[in-house]
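[09:14] KT: can someone run the structure on this one? pasting the chain below
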Amino acid sequence: MSVLVRRVVAVVGVVGVAAFATFGSLTGAHAAAAAAPAADGDGVPESFRIESPRITESSGLAASRRHKGVYWTHNDSDDGPYVYAVDSATGKTVATVTLQGIDPRDVEGISIGPDGAVYVGDIGDNLNGGWSEVWIYRFDEPERLRDATVTPARYTVRYADGPRDAESLMVHPKTGRVYIASKSQKRDGGIYEGPGQLSTSGVNVFRRIARTEITATDGAFSPDGTRLVLRSYLGGEMFRWRDGKPKALDRPVNPPLTGQGESVTFTPDGRTLMCGAEGEKSLVAPLELDGELLPETVEAREKGSDSARGGSGASPGGDGPADRNVVVGGLTVAAVVGLWVVLRRLFRRRG
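[09:31] RB: done, structure tokens below
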């Protein structure tokens, strides 16, 4: 990459950070207005706040398979061995699961497999690759939502090409294979594939199957397994998933502007992303998908309906005076992310 190109990319990054700093301080009411979908009666979920004072650093999100409208989440490091079930209708915690025998170091990802088990990724590495091993914990999603203590299976993980900093754990909903996306460090991010079946004895070696350049803070597979989304603090990227391989789509993902973007999951119908952030009473907001961002099994009439509403991969907001700054802020961030993706694609092809 030429010196000129590096300068252009650097400018894009600075502008993106500036936009985030400018508009990230908007009031919660304005952010919610920008994130909430139009009330059209088609079942698009509404935004909600995580009300529990115990959850101040939500760093992962997974839609429950057993309980409608419930999302599993966890705090970042230093919280303890806890996983929380949050009811999106009220924002309240309806179950706290304590992982017995576990002393987590830096929990950063959560996902639910086809077997109905919850997978928790103790995969963060604030030393940027200083930990030689990380861990994944697994427990069955409970049939009843109540506080419980469980003894999870524990899997030791190493990367074939050395330690990585990672915050994204994804379990494929059809094959059950586990994947981790590392955070990009000098264009050295990657998607890593675990063994066909994880083992509680010995070490599970994860091998890189694709390169990424996104600072991935979370990721998720669509319910049909045909799409993989990785999100960052400001933007996101969608991949078409076929035969166990990801192919990046040209169209960027533009999450709602809700704060420091840390989590993402698909809704059970695959038509919407729920995007979360860190902080007290953090907002989880919907991003309705359309076009090539939609999973392949979503019915054609749904795609047509989305297109008729003029969807562009960003949730529509209000158009009143109180909402204009939010909309402008969201468009600014979207433009920055879009420009970054275009430049990256261009020079990836030339490289």
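[09:33] KT: thanks! Residues 324-350 form the longest helix (27 residues).
[09:34] RB: yep, looked fine to me
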